[in-house]
Amino acid sequence: MFKKLLVAALLVASASAQSLPVSTPWTKQEMAMEGAFQAMLFYNWRQSSNIHRYTPAMPSTDINGNPMTYMPGYKERYTPIDFSPLVKKNASQGAINLTYLLTSIGHVLVTNAIKDHTGRAFWQTTSIGFEAFIIGSNYGAGVRVKW
Known about the structure:
Helix content is 64%, strand content 0%. The chain is mainly α. 22% of the residues are buried.
């Protein structure tokens, strides 16, 4: 599923960057920066997907060997936090997929709408920095991408 979503996002991003009318054509550096952002967004999407699919298994016995049927707060305590502001806490996988797909397309459209190269560079650099911060925060919280 995620491969199809990635291909769709990259195709839309590529087609949008090449076919939308702009007053200033994209430079190779701007295309490379957009590619870097899209790759980071994809990685962030995988982190969010893994967090929201993750359900920790509760131990069957306590430290004394007594059977356990319920442990208050166990899931909340051992489930990593998603630092992405795009995703709600209890979002479904479909909502996560749609959010990141629309973010991918929206980023290309906004980048395309910025007319001067300095503005585009600022927008893309800021976006890449934001994604790097989110990915790093998730990684620091213990989120690993499972392919």
